[in-house]
Amino acid sequence: MSVLAAPPHPEPDVRPAPGGILASTRVVGVFIAVVLLLLVVGAVHLTQGTSSVGTLDLLRLTVGTDDEAARILVAARLPRLLAGLAIGVVLGFAGAALQSIARNPLASPDTLAVNAGAHLAIVAVASFGVALPALPAGGLAFCGGLAAAGLVMAMSGGGQSGTTRLILAGSATALALSSVTMLLLLLFEQATIGLFAWGNGSLVQSDVVALTQLAPVMAGAVMALMLLAHRLDVLALGDDTATILGIDVRRTRLVVTVLAVLLSAAAVTLTGPVGFVGLCAPVIVRLLAPVVPGVHRHRLLLPLSGLAGALIVLGSDVLLRAIMGGQAGVDIPTGVVTTLFGAAVLIWLARRHRDAGPTRRPPAGRAAVRSAAFHRTVVAAAAVITVAAVAVGMLVGDTWLLLGDIANWLNGTTGPAYTFVLDQRWPRVAAAVLAGAALAVAGTTVQAVCRNPLAEPGILGITAGAGLGAVALLTFVPLAGVWAVSGVAGLGAMLAFALVYGVAWRGGLNSDRLVLIGFGAWQGGMAVITFLIVAFDPWNTGKALTWLSGSTYGRTAIQVLPVVIALVVLTPAVVAARRELDLLALDDDTPRVLGVRLERTRLVALGAAALLTSTAVSAVGVIGFVGLVAPHMARALVGSRHARVLPVAALIGAALVSIADTLGRTVIAPAQIPAGLVTAMIGTPYFVWLLWRSRVTATTAR
Predict the structure, then answer these.
(1) Residue 243: how many CB atoms within 10 A of its CB?
(2) What's the mean pLDDT in 46-73?
(3) Which residues does residue 509 pair with via DSSP β-bridges, in sequence order?
């Protein structure tokens, strides 16, 4: 069976090996080999740094004294080595534990939003100028991570309702939490300076005080997980079997989850979120199964995952400084490298993915069958709300206007001050409305093709590609013009989509595989964006953060034009394919029986969605949740027929982004909140409700 295959009760590659005598020699040999490799990597790690102290200087310490080398070793290099070793071990343990209780090989502190929750908790305190010692900060991070993990686990059926559902629930929750974190970083830029790089996992340590304070917590949680190894072995046999054998399944899951979150929170407190170590380490260990019998038994899996995690962290740090130089270890977070590695592992796993059963179901609404008159009424009401949102957007902001001012402006009779305000404001309002409509149409299309109610355009890697293109241009060509930024962003989005689609193709297109590979591309793209910002423009992160948060600031009429063209050309094409979208949302067999050319239709539909998204992103930056929320609201109102859903979704998306942009320009004027962050805060409560509703529906279906 494939690594990610999903039987009715998915337990892919997390069950213990059949009973029998373990090949002790091989087990001992693997442990010795891993420890020796870790010692070698650690020794190389100590020789790297920003100073001129090298291997020979460190070797002299064994036979004599070298005060300078000893000072650098104790003050900088040993703390960094010990921090990397500690977080690698605890993240490996945490990832293995989470994958075991979820019976899902993609469960990890990252995909369960544990790191995002812990990161938000620490940044929230730092935003108000409060500096906490390691233990109180760790406790705060633990509360944030536990709340996030509890939400994701609850909404994904404990991770057992399918790999794709777990990834989508975790990624959307992490997106919401990261949006709030980014808002705090923007609003309190001086108080949180340096936290952007730290927020991607930095091993820079000035001493071992924090590690010393957190070490007992880490050691206690690791020992507790080892004591629970037998229970985890039994739990892997299935809930019913475990209950018969006397295991309290609910209590065991709760205790293991708390311990895993505690380990993850300690790692975040020490170094920031180091991405995907908890995902990759257990996966690598399980690949040793043909060589090491019984590696799925947790008395072997847990410690080996810890050692593998330490190797990943230290190896990534060594690789970073070997390629980029010693200063890169200070400037560039090690988590960027581990995230790139994790994204590659995730894409590799997704390539082996099979149909995920209950996670792939039509994104149908719960509305009863509505009459044509009711549909027209809903369209009219949505249009009125959109027009009202546009009018309010024109009237309010850092300068409040009256309707008469707009009438005079249209007639060309306003004074210079109001003329300047309205000339600057209308492109922003137009960009918000048009981008919202484009994202909503794209989201409706993606959900129909993927047959997943939690899918949205960004999950296909499109927004990450657009962001990478724009940030790269802004970094290397700061004076680039509007058309250049928009064009490069659009090109990056299309290249990312082409890459994701090409990699996902494997004798046909599996929708779940497409989503998982898109998620991996999204994470990898965001890691590269972080690298560009901290490596080449570390003192101007606000510029990139604002664009990545989705802002209409400084928009001009010429930037709105590509979105207009995309909507005018592609929306009629999507509407013309409404029958095919209805059929694609059902299953793969029905469209084929009715003569629909499945693969070509998917490619055309997703291509249209990618173009709509890329033009929207090039105009207003990265705005999340619109492509997820607007189609659901439309289906709840008018049902699931795309002839009715598309116009309502477009109007809802336009109104949502317009309202978010207006609020962002008004509530803390003259300062501004990017529209993308406002949509995230508006969309998060709806998304939580949506997850809960779809969870109940999925449970009933099973």
Answers:
(1) 14
(2) 73
(3) 505
**38 phi and psi angles, rounded to 5 deg:** -65, -40
670 preceded by cis ω (within 30°)?
yes
Can you tell me the distance from the alpha carbon of 445 to that of 448, in angstroms, rounded to the nearest whole number?
5
Which CATH fold would you assign to the domain 372-701?
ABC transporter involved in vitamin B12 uptake, BtuC (1.10.3470)
CATH of the structural domain 25-352, one choice from 3.40.50.620, 3.40.50.300, 1.10.3470.10, 1.10.10.10: 1.10.3470.10
550 alpha-carbon distance from chain centroid:
16
End-to-end CA distance of the chain: 22
User: Which one, of 206, 157, 193, 312, lies nearest residue 701 by Cα?
Assistant: 157
Q: What are the residues facing 652 on neighbouring strands? A: none
Q: How confident is the model at residue 546 (pLDDT cuts 50, 70, 90)?
A: low
Estimate the share of the chain in helix, then strand, then coil, as percent rounded to the nearest 5.
Answer: 75, 0, 25
Dihedral (Cα; 581, 587, 590, 595), 10-degree rounding: 50
- 303-304-306-307 Cα dihedral, nearest 10 degrees: 120
Q: Residue for token digits 């004798």? A: 507
- Start-end ranges of CATH 1.10.3470.10 in the chain? 25-352, 372-701
- Which of 4-25 are b and which e, b meaning 16 or more Cβ less than 10 Å from the residue's Cβ? bbbeeebbbbbebeeeeebeee
Q: Which pLDDT value is given to residue 541?
A: 60
Q: What is the CB-side half-sphere exposure of residue 378 using CA atoms within 13 A?
A: 23
Reduced to 3 states (helix: H, G, I; strand: E, B; else coil), residue 104 is: coil
Tell me how far apart the alpha carbons of residues 130 and 285 are, in angstroms, rounded to a whole number: 40
Neighbouring CB atoms inside 10 A of 412's CB total: 7
Tokens of 424: 């600057």
Give me the amino acid identity at 90: V
Residues 515-532 have a mean pLDDT of 84
pLDDT for res 315: 92
Closest-CA residue to 195 (of 181, 205, 215, 210): 181
Average pLDDT, the chain: 80
Q: What is the pTM of this model?
A: 0.80
pLDDT, residue 92, reads 94
